[in-house]
Specification:
The chain has 10 helices and no strands.
């Protein structure tokens, strides 16, 4: 699935003044397209952005400033790297660089702050922020088989860790989501998608816990069978 250059250029034209040091719409889109086409990306790619935009189209009328949400969507994973963490901050800096003086300071700060909330480490404060973070987590409410595919894609991006560590990280993150009073923050996601997300998370947590136990047992067995342990191999 490919992102729409025409859609982005219209959005840019509505929000970024052509005078000054701002990048042109074509330049900005070309850079974003290159970023989201990086071969290391399996989940955080053009398809993810396109799906996020589809969710926005569905619920754009529920917020006062859908363009701000859309700009944050386009940029929130622009500088994604599997490791180290902090790509949201890098992505926000990229947005600030590209927009330059083509947008008011208040307008830029609003979107930079929104991008920051896609770390999912704090509760959003505005309706636009809430819709953005819910859209970013919309995979959790997709049909089960699609949700599993998304999980596999996320695993493929984490080449710097082994399967056991991936399971442990996922379990920690998902337990954090499940412990919330609500997984989603925006009214439409809470109303229409909360139940599906909770069901998917409960199912995947059960599978991950089982896999974690198997992987931990395999690691322990491998460690115990190494030469030099308990006199073996001597």
């Amino acid at each position: 699935m490919k992102m729409s250059a025409e859609r982005f250029e219209k959005l840019w034209a509505r929000n970024v003044a052509p005078d000054g040091n701002a990048w042109s719409a074509a330049e900005a889109y070309a850079y974003l397209e290159k970023q989201y086409s990086q071969p290391s990306r399996s989940y955080h790619d053009q398809t993810h952005i396109d799906q996020c935009l589809g969710w926005l189209d569905r619920y754009a009328e529920t917020v006062d400033d859908p363009d701000a949400v859309e700009l944050a969507i386009w940029f929130h994973d622009a500088c994604y790297l599997p490791s180290p963490q902090g790509h949201e901050e890098r992505s926000a800096r990229l947005f600030n660089l590209m927009v330059a003086d083509g947008m008011s300071s208040a307008g830029k700060e609003k979107i930079i702050k929104m991008i920051g909330y896609t770390t999912h480490s704090g509760a959003p404060q505005t309706s636009e922020e809430a819709l953005l973070v819910d859209i970013d987590l919309a995979s959790f409410c997709r049909p089960w088989h699609q949700f599993l595919i998304d999980t596999v894609k996320c695993r493929c991006e984490k080449k710097d860790i082994d399967d056991l560590e991936f399971c442990e990280r996922q379990i920690c993150f998902l337990n954090g989501l499940a412990a919330r009073p609500h997984i989603y923050f925006s009214p439409p996601f809470r109303k229409y998608h909360e139940a599906e997300a909770r069901e998917n998370i409960a199912r995947i947590l059960e599978l991950l816990e089982q896999r974690k136990e198997r992987l931990a047992a395999m690691r322990l067995e491998a460690q115990q069978s190494k030469p030099g342990r308990h006199g073996s191999g001597l």
